[in-house]
Amino acid sequence: MKRYTNRMLILIALLFCMSAAAADKPNIVLIISDDHSFTDYGFMGHDVIQTPNLDKLATQSVLFRRGYVPTALCRPALMTLATGTYAHHNLITGNDPANTDANKAHVADKDKSAKAQLIDNIDRFETLPQTLAKQGYLSHQSGKWWEGSYQRGGFTHGMTRGYPKPKGRHGDDGLDIGREGLGPILNFMDEAIEKDKPFFLWYAPFLPHTPHNPPDRLLNKYKKEGRHNSIAKYYAMVDWFDETCGQLLQGLEDKGVYGNTLVIYVTDNGWIQREGGGYAPRSKRSPNEGGTRTPIMYRWPGKIDPNDRPELATSIDIYPTILAAAGAGIPDDRPGLNILPHLTDDKAIERDHIFGESFAHDIADIYNPEASLLYRWVIKGNMKLLLTYDGNPGRMKYPPKDFAPQLYDLQQDPLEKNNLAKDLPGKVKSMTALLNGWYQPKQTKHSGNDKP
User: Do 270 and 414 belong to one domain?
Assistant: First the structure.
């Protein structure tokens, strides 16, 4: 009887330790807006659009106003978040395979559609939810998701059925989140809390993305004589997205998990609304500020002191930072920086440059990123260098016409109008060397472009 009691005590102690370990792990909420300019928030200075919930989140977070995504298109941007890798590494450089001879040959060789082969790339990496599962996390996918079903991405719960299911291109049922309420997310949180499990939420709603069909109660706030209806609708969509973020963040408080939840905010790519519809040049899909820049926020009450930080930030860091917060190991081949120590100890990030790349919307060759390469870029301090390449533009609306290097001083010229490359050849040379140390195309597309 004594031995039985001792065994019971040991078992109870083990269960207590496991429960305590689970309690130490934060819940993690990743909020990803879709087609949203970095200027279009109250806290970023917009004088019309109302974003009270994100404004409040900004005051509670470490806010990086100079945040960036490496590729200004939704699918590559999301794949970076899911795997912690750049597009040229994970081969998800665009949204869809192009109908090219190269891709037709791949289909014939493998007797498998190019779309299916593209999705196979998700299996080459341990994804964020897969690694978190090893730490005891339950995870939920909602919103945009291109890589097959939510299970294919390693989520334990989710909404997207995925290709080849009907409407499975980029989210199917998952795209209802936000627009049709937050029921699936709130129910998932209840389940995780009931099971005493830490949880990970991937909240990537189809907002403020088209269709721009906001509720009248929001649209009426932005209708104004002299303001084009397409502009008013976009403004209202941003407001609608903010409203859903408020509902999600309030849910954390209502369910008593506010204090032990790390909330991260980023957008997948920029968007500058044109009068009459569509997006303007130098926004979505472009390497310019209107395409790649996004505020990035980290909120963890009691662990991270709110601060408005001046450093450069990049979404490539989100993957390793989440894993560090969850107590998981970070794979050696992930290029991002774990910035958690810089957040919790308020230390400056020891990095003065970040990288990015742009590819055609439609992928010319699903196994050769260079076939679709349009730009490589680097920002060092306030200087930004763009190098241009002749990748197949696919459905690119504004293909590059001038292949000369572009160099901009973002502090003096935030709209990137004054090309300083001819005036500062030494700066072009040194920053090109930085790019080549990061990723250099094997085939030179334009002589002189990638030679330091």
Answer: no
Query: Same domain for 346 and 356?
Result: no
Out of 350, 378, 410, pick the residue that ends a domain: 350
Could you tell me if 278 and 129 lie in one domain? Answer: yes
pLDDT tens track for 154-191: 999 999 999 999 999 999 999 999 999 999 999 999 99
Domain span at residue 438 reads 352-452
Backbone angles phi, psi at 57, to 5 degrees: -60, -40
Is 234 in the same domain as 295? yes
pTM of the model: 0.93
Which of 303, 332, 350 is the C-terminal boundary of a domain? 350
* Residues 336-393 pLDDT 10s: 999 999 999 999 998 999 999 999 999 999 999 999 999 999 999 999 999 999 887 6
Residue 408 maps to which CATH number?
Answer: 3.30.1120.10
- Count of domains observed in the chain: 2
